[in-house]
Design brief:
Layout (H helix, E strand, L loop, with lengths): L5 H11 L7 H9 L3 E8 L2 E11 L2 E9 L8 H15 L4 E7 L5 H7 L3 E6 L9 E7 L2
Parallel strand pairs: 3-4
Antiparallel strand pairs: 1-2, 2-3, 4-6, 5-6
């Protein structure tokens, strides 16, 4: 991902997360940070998905993984996740972790199929009454 992708990434973000999208300013700040890595998926030269992660001690934290609604169920999210896992292995960390909105029936099977294990629930992580499931995949 680079600065030229941000307008499209932000447009996808607003559609995917109507209630609580990241701001364009947040994406700009994320791209500047040294311990983060962001990638995009493209189809016909158009960004259709994106993912990002950060190194955090002995683990990598997935910050976002989003595919445009009209391009879901085509393996794009799986490929983005695979690349984040590969990047994490190259960082030689022990694990990769993420938070997923409780009830996200599209993402949950993807994470389970890729070796993530649910650890705990974080109450109100995404706001009042909107909880997250913390998941972890061991890499060592």
């Amino acid at each position: 991902m680079n600065a030229m992708d941000l307008v499209t990434v932000y447009a996808i973000e607003k559609v995917a997360y109507k209630e609580d999208p990241w701001s364009l300013a947040q994406f700009k700040e994320e791209l500047k940070a040294k311990n983060r890595w962001y990638i995009v998926a493209e189809f016909e030269n158009q960004v259709i998905g994106y993912a990002g992660a950060l190194t955090n001690g002995d683990a990598v934290d997935v910050l976002t993984l989003t595919v445009s609604p009209e391009h879901r169920r085509k393996g794009i999210g799986r490929e983005l996740l695979r690349r984040l896992i590969d990047w994490s292995r190259n960082k030689k960390v022990a694990a990769i972790m993420l938070e997923m909105r409780v009830g996200n029936s599209e993402a949950y099977p993807l994470y389970l199929a890729n070796g993530f294990v649910p650890l705990q629930e974080r109450k109100n992580y995404y706001g009042p009454g909107v909880h997250a499931t913390v998941m972890r995949k061991e890499l060592t």
